[in-house]
Structures are given as structure tokens and as C-alpha cells.
């Protein structure tokens, strides 16, 4: 079968998951603190995580196209569908933007104009960390990503019916779009991850943070790709995708896990060794108050995939690949949880102290264990399932709109005869 059918059963299952996620968000809102910190951090966490998977999927398409990686041709329709989630992703992020303007949440310390005037560090960064940059950066940059995603998808689908024989104009256009997109993606993704996530810890900075976050997005996207490929094959789709293609996807899961660990270690080791207060505060908070999650993050995202995927044959075993992919996907969801929760919680504590008439800078940042902050609870998992089901609903809808096999891609034959020695 080459035309995906999004039947009623799949729609009902994913619709039920979305309802579950919505109910978890609603419950979180009503059992939360006065600033609804758990609700807003859960919403931001999942919005950034799944929008990032969509962005990095477009990056994968562009990078593989530029590198002439023909082996991936049979899989690229999945990444095209993933990339188009950036459209609802932008809508999700605009809710956060509206919250900054309307003071609906206290996620970002820099959004408090009174605090910025009193804080030299925040004041020094206010040229970049402000609601105008946050708003127009999100609109313009994510809007540009969407433009490239739609143009590449449109050209790819048009190639199916209009690009047979010696007509390579469609593929040349995709390559041109890819070459233009890659440097734009490199600079703009860093700016947005600084705005969306790193600025939650507004007094801290790291030159490695954008690389680190992008690697986490990449691994989550690759794990989800493997699971999608295996699911589609179990339903009778993608018959030409072989164990060799799965093997290469597994190599990316293995190799980039090592790269992510290199960035994890480099960021932590250099900051620890330099012992500069403005930098160590980030890791000091996580080691003091989030130690189990801090080291669990490393175990799930490095130790497990490294030792399981180190052998060549494990990358060809369906059961093993499903297990590792689920673990890595959840592991990098936890990674973003750890990036987001501590900084936002401190900001909420300082806001609460300010409302109580205390000096914010005198607040002790002793953060006791709390489900939803120190570790994900049932409501966090339910919210993630809701966002995942929304993501898959959009993806499956997009998959129905074109053949799963890009029939006239000039590298299709290479992909059909792909073998890993």
C-alpha cells in the first residue's frame, strides 16, 4: 500500500488522547499555585518540545538533501509531515506570547518590568529579552520555517506527477531551498531556543545551549521516526523500507546520542571547572534540588542507547529498536522538563515573595520535592500524551495527502537498493 488511510479507529484513538491531555491541563490549572506555574510550564514544555521536533525534521530533510543522502528517500514523506506541525506549533507558542503581554503567567523573570529596572543583569539583557523580541522573533522566525516547510513539501508532492524522466527541476528547487534554509535554521533556532527556554534562567547563559537543545530535538525526532516507520510497516505500508534503512536510522540514534552526551559533558564540565558564579548557578540548582532527575537524564539518554545500540545487529531488531526509541523519546522529553521547570519555579517563588511584600533577592531558593516540578507526575504524562496525539493527528492527516513513496525523486532507486555492509 502506498496511500496512507487515516481511518476512523485511528482518529478516535488519537482524539481520545487529545481529550486526555486537555483534561490533564485543566486539572493542573485548578490544583496549581496562585500563578498556575505547573500549568504554564507543562504547556510551554510540550509546545516547545513538539514544535522543535517539527523544526528539526525540516532540518533533517534539508541536510540530507544537501548531502545527497539518497538512502533516506523512502522515509522523507514522514519528515515532511512532521515539519508541517510547525503551523499548529506556532499557534501554540502564540498563547505563550499572549501570556507575556497579558501577564497571564510568571514564566520569565525578564517579563517583569519592575524587576528589570532593579536587576543589573536583567537590565543588561533587556535589549534581547523583552516582549517585543519574543513576539516578533516567534512570529517571523517560525513563520520563515513554515514557509520553507511548505515550499519543500509542495515541490516534493508536485514532483510525483510532474517530474518524470529527465526533468530534475523539482529536485533542484528542493536542493536550492534546502541550501538557503540550513544557515537560516542554524542562526534562528539558536535565537528562539534562547528566548523560549534558556531565558527561563535569565541570569544564566551558555554558548553550548542551542547546540545541546537542537541535539535533543534531533534525537526525539529520530526516535519518533523509527517508531512511525515500524508502525506503518506493521500496517502494511512502506514495504520497500528494509532492515537496512532501519539500521541507518538506528545509527543516527546511536551517533547523535553520543554527540548529545559530548555537549552535556562539555557544558557541565567547563562551567564546573571555571566556577564562575553567573554560570554555576544553573547546575547548582539542579544538583541541589533535582539530583535524581539530573542523573536519570544522563542514564536514559546516553548509557541506555549507547550500550544497547553499540552492537550492529541490535539496530535491525524491531523489538530492540522500539524499546530504545521509546526510552530515548521519553528521555529527551525529560531533558526539556529539566531545562524548563527549575528556572520557571524560581521565578514563580520570587513573584510570590514580591506579592507577599518580601524582597525577591532575599528569597531562599530551597525548592522542596514536588511532583510536577521535581519529577513528572501523572498530569505531566497525560499532558504529553495529549500533545503527542495532536502531533500524530496532524502527521497522519498530512500523510493521507500524498503518496508515501516519492515516485519521481531522482534518488528513489538508490533508496530502493540501499544496503548496509
Condensed summary:
By secondary structure, the protein is mainly α. Helix content is 72%, strand content 0%.
Describe the structure.
This protein has one domain. The longest helix is centred in the last third of the chain and has 38 residues, at 318-355. Helix content is 72%, strand content 0%. It has 421 residues and is mostly helical. The model has no long low-confidence stretch (mean pLDDT 94). The protein has helices at 8-30, 37-66, 76-83, 86-102, 113-118, 120-125, 131-162, 169-196, 209-234, 243-274, 277-289, 291-309, 318-355, 378-399, 412-416. Helix 3 (76-83) crosses helix 14, helix 4 runs antiparallel to helix 7 (131-162) and helix 7 runs antiparallel to helix 8.
Which key features would you list for this structure?
single chain; 421 residues; mainly alpha; 15 helices
Count the domains. Answer: 1
Number of helical segments?
A: 15
Helix content: over 70%
Average predicted local confidence, pLDDT: 94
Strand/helix succession: HHHHHHHHHHHHHHH
Principal-axis shape: globular
Radius of gyration: 22 Å
Structural class: mainly alpha
Runs in which pLDDT lies below 50 for 5 or more consecutive residues are: none
Count of distinct strands: 0
How are the secondary structure elements laid out?
Layout: H1 8-30, H2 37-66, H3 76-83, H4 86-102, H5 113-118, H6 120-125, H7 131-162, H8 169-196, H9 209-234, H10 243-274, H11 277-289, H12 291-309, H13 318-355, H14 378-399, H15 412-416
